[in-house]
Amino acid sequence: MGAGKTSVGRVLAARLEVPFDDLDAMIVAEAGRPIPEIFRTEGEPGFRELEAQMLARALKTCRGVLALGGGAAMHPASRELLRGGPLVLLEISPELAAVRLGRGSGRPLLAGDADPMVRWRELALERDPVHQDLARWRIDAGRGSAAAVARGITDMMGQDLLAAPEKEDS
């Protein structure tokens, strides 16, 4: 949350000359209502189920960069769909998250009476092991602009491709 997935994703897609899609935007378009409303009426489990269904559809049609919300991998079906994929984890410090997220900024999981940053830290602790398990690449998204982060991602991807052993012809 607050890592810049949409901003970085758009720039990364432009650098790679591929389409950009945002799973949250796809969910809103499909549901015909904003995510906070889905959370209010369906709860988090209902939202995660819809998110998993939309992810399955998106992975069949998306031919570029697909930005996922921070909780997308928490649904078991989504986790299996993402396993082994070319996932990039955008990491930010709690301090930067506090600046970017302000007092919750309409995010359903940060809403309520609790301090949004206490809740952000709880979510980060819960999600981090899953994210670490699934991510092929990790980058500090708090250092520099979206363009600098996207450049760092393409650099990591390029190094990964260069380091991959050549496959023998069968």
UniProtKB/TrEMBL annotation:
Enzyme Commission no: 2.7.1.71
Binding positions (ATP): 2-7, 107
Pfam annotation, one family: SKI
Record bears the keyword Zinc-finger: no
Gene Ontology MF annotations: ATP binding; magnesium ion binding; shikimate kinase activity
GO cellular component: cytosol
Cellular localization per UniProt: Cytoplasm
PANTHER family the record matches: SHIKIMATE KINASE, SHIKIMATE KINASE 1, CHLOROPLASTIC
HAMAP family, per the entry: Shikimate_kinase
Protein name in UniProt: Shikimate kinase
